[in-house]
Amino acid sequence: MSGAGRVPDVADVADLLADLSADRRELFALRLERWWPDVRDGLLAVHAPEDVAALERRLLRSAARAYAERDPELHRLDLARTLAPDWFQRPGMLGYAAYTDRLTGTADAPGTLADVRERLPLLAELGVTYLHLMPLLLPREGDSDGGYAVADYRRVRPDLGTTQDVRALAADLRSRGISLVLDVVLNHVAREHPWARAARTGSPEERARYRAYFHVFDDRGVPDAYERTLPEVFPGTAPGSFTWDDELSGWVWTTFNAFQWDLDWSCPDVLAEMVDVVLHLAGLGVEVLRLDAVAFLWKRMGTACQNQPEVHALTQVLRGVTRVACPGVLLKAEAIVAPTDLVHYLGTGRHVGRVSDLAYHNSLMVQVWSMLATGDVRLASRALQAIPPVPASTSWITYVRCHDDVGWAVSDEDAAAAGLGGYAHRSFLSDWYSGAFPGSSATGLVFQADPATGDRRISGSTAALVGLEAAVARGGRLGQEDVDLAVGRLLLAHALVMAWGGIPVLWTGDELGHPGDDGWAAEPGHEADNRWVHRPRMSAELLEQRHDPSTVPGAVFAGVRHLARTRASLPHLHAAVAAQVLDPGDPGVLAVLRRHPEGPLLVLANVTEGWRPFPAERLAAHGVAGALDALSGRVPPLGGDGQLWLSPYEVVWLVGDQP
Ligand code: GLC
Ligand code: GLC
Question: What is the pLDDT of residue 1?
Fold first, then answer.
């Protein structure tokens, strides 16, 4: 490796690249020049300079090996994507997330990887270009936190299929313009993973080597000191962040469940092994890697041990290596954190353009639910305005619901600025969505109430949270007020996330208003985790109804599909164009402006059950007076008072002329 330069010498990996053409060797060298400085900077931010050289050599060999072995079709994809680096920012992108075994099949005969193809017509009707299949690598037996406790990153859950099936499915999806997205669980492995096994029961040398992969303490001293500032993720079912293990004869760090052992990312072997895992998944044809629980990777005494600066340095290393070996692959940060911490995952300061390409817009999701509960946009407007801009080369993942609970990430500052108490508002939202608040028709469940902080999160399907489940259970039909209003809320939520710019990701069944699973607690291993309520098996019957607009699933499906189709036709929704939330006038109307070279796009959303106005002068001021509403295909008429009046839960996407 050349000592002085910023780029290692490609001659160091000549043996690995020997079978490649001169052109391909040159391309590798060019990529090193472009991306390796990021890798090195990232390493230097977490490791002592004297350790960095060895680690660099190891990562370089991993990258070169992955590059040399890359399937020619994937190599071609890499080339195409480096020619169109904004491929994932385009308005035609639409995501869908599902459990493989619940997307098709029945409880008795669950779906497999091969069966995913049965849903291709559904995905095509919606225009899906990104399919996130929930964890499918070999988990531990018994409760595995929905697959987030991985026992082997190189094997697939046998009931779903094989590694070869993943490869074949990825190729099939790719040929249809759909990118396969998989999780890479970075923060922890299952207690049954070979590393954890070796730390527990290996030979003395193995035990010494693999204990260093984890955070292990002989007594409670250090754990107690950490716990003074550690928040709890599963206070109800897995209290504390450390677990005593007899075989280990020590306390091991377990942020999530006792069987999920946090990795010690300050150990160079952990980083090198995980780089290999990432490259392995990329080699299967996975195009987007969801960095699960990435916020938790680095621990620092006296802090919450989330969002530490080293997390971004480590992501930069992962990104740099993948850019060298497989630049068609994106990294997506799953950091469900406070609004001020969130933007760093897309890159701020020296990490701009060097960390994840994608991150979940948790704040937008939370604010959508908050607006729907209160019928008031003032807090959301303020909170969303306060989020700093993100690099124009990145994109949010926008979503209404996912497989997890909803945690009320509303900061005290934002709440105060909107005249609310943070705690009181968060508490109200839990009351509202669990149906405890008078007048609420939501039927969510409280998840992990924390008696110490009073914090309560919420589980429940979109249909449950918008009140559709309750209305339908009462025998409600389309045309009845409660059903229509609930459908209105569901479509409004989707109209906002689809008009934000970024990749909207639909959660399985939300396109049908699919209810949750009443029987969730009866499944072995699920009884203590009510997130399973909103992870139902997709009902073939509801799916069948999607083409019948007189049914609830048909009406919801038509609405969601229309939003997706319309979105795909609007260049304004390219993720590089920022969404600018305007100061609210009427507190019931959210206004979001996008200023695109082709002209302005103004999104107006009435988050209330009544009619609400938006003044004509403001339409004119933003260049959308007399503009077409892309959703209805007409120019909305003004009322006698010269204002644009929006019906309950109506959303318009007003497309102005070129400036
Ligand atoms: C992420 C997943 C969640 C899981 C946790 C631990 O937050 O989304 O489902 O419980 O990580 O892996
Ligand atoms: C952690 C994750 C969050 C998830 C939760 C599991 O807080 O960051 O994504 O919701 O665990 O419920």
Answer: 40
